[in-house]
């Protein structure tokens, strides 16, 4: 029986290779399902403001159900827009947003999930913009059972590697059609990426990376080599690059390197050795031994709906109701739009009124239209 560590190592390698060869993404998603304990997987992009989704790669989902989701059931998914509010890298299950008993009463479940045998899903935002996010998801079918502690733990182990692979995929755009779609739909990826050769020599820097070097508060270029400004960070970066050069680093690198605690947000560098598969071939083309990418963990200021949801501790279902109130009025119209019964809509509305101190739909519209976060003391 293959150990968990061996399965994880194989999967991580496949994820990074898929970043360079998009035809491998279905295999990577398949291996993710095997490792986590799910039956189908998807890498997609979603915009809560426009209610648009682009499905990038799939494993084990019938094309007609994908088509149905995009054309009919996207707006009925009870997990949105709440799921797009989660910080990048946070692991969530669909039942975290909507309990299964409540989900089973929706049209989304009855008409789209149930016919496929789907009962739950794990997901994570790989990149998060103001209203949109790129998401990886592993779906649980009836034979898998609902998400449990172990499946959640395993999914959490692979999410950081999917995040890094997305950044690397943009860097090594080979002008393939599928890769062009990935690049176009993930325009909010803002990681600074550097390719380095022996002794940390810089051989390639993308635009965000050049901006960081010009600012010189986190990273600098010293005699043609990449260096961290803070002494502790420089020691960690030098050790990680040396390990990559000597082929002694793990597939996913040695973990994030804190760059500075003094600047707004928390900045980290990650080192990916270019030592196997397509990563090795791509590294050879650029005379590179490793890819270093840098990002900040703190999200941008949330849009009004997200900020309001956090302030009033609204559930996913309550967030959907408020979002719908901005589009239609009246209980029947809300029920039709959300795929819920009128009784369920009335219950959610009552809870929203109570939490927000409003009494009618028109007051809710005014609240979100003029909403601003309270000033911090």
Characterization of the model:
The chain has helices at 4-20, 25-36, 63-73, 94-97, 100-103, 107-113, 149-171, 177-185, 207-215, 231-245, 277-285, 304-311, 316-325, 331-338, 342-356, 361-369; strands at 40-47, 52-59, 91-93, 118-128, 132-141, 192-196, 202-205, 219-222, 225-228, 257-260, 267-273, 290-296. The protein is an alpha+beta fold and 377 residues long. It folds into 3 domains: 4-184, Beta-Lactamase (2-Layer Sandwich); 190-296, 2-Layer Sandwich (Beta-Lactamase); 304-369, Orthogonal Bundle (Arc Repressor Mutant, subunit A), CATH 1.10.10.10. It has a 5-stranded antiparallel beta sheet with strand order 2-1-5-4-3. It has a 5-stranded antiparallel beta sheet with strand order 7-6-12-11-10. The protein has a two-stranded antiparallel ribbon with strand order 8-9. A hairpin with a 6-residue loop joins strand 10 (257-260) and strand 11 (267-273). Helix 1 packs antiparallel against helix 2 and helix 1 crosses helix 11 (277-285). Mean pLDDT is 83; it is low at 173-189, 249-253, 277-286 and 373-377.
């Amino acid at each position: 029986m293959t150990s968990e560590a061996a399965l994880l190592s194989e999967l991580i390698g496949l994820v990074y290779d898929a970043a360079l060869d998009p035809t491998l993404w279905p295999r990577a998603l398949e291996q993710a399902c095997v490792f986590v304990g799910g039956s189908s997987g998807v890498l997609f992009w979603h915009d809560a403001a426009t209610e648009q989704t682009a499905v990038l790669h799939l494993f084990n989902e019938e094309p007609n159900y994908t088509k149905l989701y995009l054309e009919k059931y996207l707006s009925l998914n009870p997990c949105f827009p709440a799921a797009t509010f989660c910080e990048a890298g946070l692991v969530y299950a669909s039942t975290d947003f909507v309990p299964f008993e409540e989900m089973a009463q929706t049209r989304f479940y009855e008409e789209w999930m149930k016919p496929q045998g789907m009962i739950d899903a794990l997901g994570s935002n790989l990149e998060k913009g103001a209203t949109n996010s790129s998401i990886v998801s592993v779906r649980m079918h009836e034979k898998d059972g609902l998400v449990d502690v172990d499946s959640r733990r395993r999914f959490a182990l692979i999410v950081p590697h999917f995040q890094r692979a997305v950044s690397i995929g943009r860097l090594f755009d080979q002008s393939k059609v599928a890769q062009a779609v990935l690049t176009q739909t993930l325009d909010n990826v803002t990681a600074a990426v550097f390719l380095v050769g022996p002794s940390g020599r810089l051989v390639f820097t993308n635009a965000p990376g050049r901006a960081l070097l010009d600012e010189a508060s986190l990273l600098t270029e010293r005699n043609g080599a990449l260096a961290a400004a803070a002494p502790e960070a420089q020691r960690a970066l030098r050790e990680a690059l040396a390990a990559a050069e000597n082929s002694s680093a793990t597939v996913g690198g040695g973990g994030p390197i804190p760059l500075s605690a003094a600047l707004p947000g928390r900045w980290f560098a990650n080192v990916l050795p270019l030592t196997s598969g397509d990563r090795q071939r791509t590294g050879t083309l650029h005379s590179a031994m490793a890819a270093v990418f840098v990002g900040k963990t703190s999200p941008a200021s949330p849009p009004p709906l997200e900020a309001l949801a956090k302030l009033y501790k609204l559930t996913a279902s309550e967030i959907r109701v408020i979002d719908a109130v901005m589009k239609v009025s009246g209980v029947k119209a809300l029920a039709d739009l959300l795929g819920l019964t009128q009784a369920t809509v009335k219950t959610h509305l009552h809870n929203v009124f109570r939490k927000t101190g409003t009494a009618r739909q028109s007051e809710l519209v005014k609240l979100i239209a003029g909403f601003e976060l309270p000033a911090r003391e």
